[in-house]
């Protein structure tokens, strides 16, 4: 972990208490511009498989892209960003490897009943987690850690009606059944927080935190890029395997981050 780049005490407390923290202005306007340009170019590619990029579409209004790092240097630069990886390592508790790289471009569902949705406090489309408290989390030196962490960068301004991420704060360290927590939060809107952010802000969160995309009610299109990280002994998400040729072209620190080559030789922040 880079000792010069650390979460502030307030940010660390926010993570431990609530399971997430919004990091303001991490990406520069030029970085946002470069990442967006790469994603919109990707959207127009006639043969994504040729670039080893996978995609999932939900109608014409929502498209996910995955395995991005080999497509464009700007997308690789986000996954290995020197301002973000040390913060991820602080939350994981040691060195990490890239588990996935994905992005979403979406706009309002044309079939949505906007008038009805506007009557709700929040409009989550599907709460979920990537790991659970108890087997994907641990405490060490009085701090919370999770073995699956994500950074989600907003490439467009996201207001209250623009599809901001909804989270159930505190759910990252609760042992309740997941559906019980979701039902409780849906019955009391004060238990749900919807992120409002500006382009360049990054949401750092534990994947044990219950979270969801929300419905877009405005006319704006949303673009985000997401990187997932785990300790190096864990596997990448299916479809995110890095080609040997690409790994060979990268300097050693990035090769380790992309491949998880350290495996069980895990460099921990607090060695046992």
Describe this structure in words.
This protein has 272 residues and is of the alpha+beta class. The chain has a single domain (9-244), classed as Sandwich (Jelly Rolls). 25% of the residues lie in helices and 21% in strands. The strands form three sheets. A seven-stranded antiparallel beta sheet has the order 1-10-7-12-4-3-2. Strands 9-8-11 form a three-stranded antiparallel beta sheet, with no helix packed on it. Strand 5 and strand 6 form a beta hairpin. The longest helix has 15 residues, at 29-43. It starts with 8 loop residues before the first helix and ends in a 13-residue tail after the last helix.
Order of helices and strands: HEHEEHHEHEEEEHEEEEHH
In total, how many beta strands? 12
Neighbour order of strands in the largest sheet: 1-10-7-12-4-3-2
Q: What is the rounded Rg?
A: 18 Å
> Which CATH class?
Mainly Beta
How much helix, percentage-wise, in residues? Answer: 10-25%
CATH superfamily: q2cbj1_9rhob like domain
- Which CATH architecture would you pick? Sandwich
Estimate the global geometry from the Cα principal axes. Answer: globular
> What distance separates the N and C termini?
16 Å
Structural domain count: 1
Q: Strand fraction band?
A: 15-25%
Which fold name is given in CATH as the topology? Jelly Rolls
Count of helical stretches: 8
Structural class: alpha+beta
Unreliable segments (pLDDT under 50, ≥5 consecutive)?
none
Q: Mean of the pLDDT scores?
A: 95
Largest sheet: 7 strands, antiparallel
